Amino acid sequence: xxxxxxxxxxxALRHLGCTADVVTLDPSRLEDDPLFCGGHWxxxxxxxxxxxxxxxxxxxxxxxxxxxxxxxxxxxxxxxAPCGFGLDGASEQARVVAExxxxxxxxxxxxxxxxxxxxxxxxxxVEAIASILHPGVLPPSSLTRSLRA
Length: 149
Prior knowledge:
This protein is α/β, with parallel strands linked by helices. It has one domain (about 5-149): Nitrogenase molybdenum iron protein domain (Rossmann fold, 3-Layer(aba) Sandwich). It has 6 helices and 7 strands, in the order H-E-E-H-E-E-H-E-H-E-H-H-E. This is Fe/B12 periplasmic-binding domain-containing protein.
């Protein structure tokens, strides 16, 4: 399934005409496991929201990466969307990400609700990511939280 932008997101993106380099992360257990960068449909969500996916696994499953590799792609925005966690759990993990990648804007998103499960709510995920990338054009989503904007 591919997420398609809603009319509101599409209109906002036409108005803006800009993109940002974005990485989505699933740092489920940061102490024990490697970081996972988004794959499957997540790069499509980022692109539909007006971002440019960097360091992601295009056309394949989400996959492991390292802090060094993440810093090397120099993302402007990091969206932490861990599988199995709501917004509070994502926010806790995003704090660690913000410490490890100090030059990026870091956001937590309720990945379970809008990113990691295929279905109609993927469109909500596109809108939420667009609200992160284009503040002031789209209203903020209640399922996102800024750790360092």
